[in-house]
Design brief:
β7 and β8 form a beta hairpin. The protein has about 80 residues and is an all-beta fold. The strands form 2 sheets. It has a 6-stranded antiparallel β-barrel. A two-stranded antiparallel sheet has the order 2-3. The chain has a domain of about 30 residues. It starts with a strand and ends with a strand.
Length: about 80
C-alpha cells in the first residue's frame, strides 16, 4: 500500500455551481490525508483530485463527486 500523509490543512471552496464565489466563500480547517504523490486529498468524506495547470480562481484541487473547485493549503505535517 502506498504511503499516505496527514496534514493540518485549510481548504476553501472556490466556486459555487461553476460561478466564482467572491464574498464569504466556504472555508474549512482540519486534518486531511494525501497520497504519497499529493495528487489526491481526502477531507471530511470528500475526495479531491489535483488540477494540473491550476483551476478556476487559483484553485488547485477539484472534488470528484460535485465537480467544485477548491484551494487546498497544507499548513503542518502531522504524525
Amino acid at each position: 500500500m502506498a504511503n499516505k500523509y496527514k496534514f493540518l490543512a485549510a481548504i476553501s471552496q472556490m466556486t459555487q455551481n461553476g460561478a466564482p464565489v467572491y464574498a464569504g466563500f466556504d472555508h474549512f480547517r482540519g486534518e486531511a490525508i494525501f497520497t504519497s504523490s499529493l495528487n489526491t486529498c481526502y477531507f471530511n468524506g470528500i475526495t479531491l483530485r489535483k488540477v494540473k495547470g491550476g483551476g478556476i480562481n487559483d484553485s488547485n484541487y477539484k472534488c470528484e463527486e460535485s465537480g467544485e473547485f477548491y484551494r487546498v493549503m497544507k499548513l503542518e505535517k502531522l504524525q
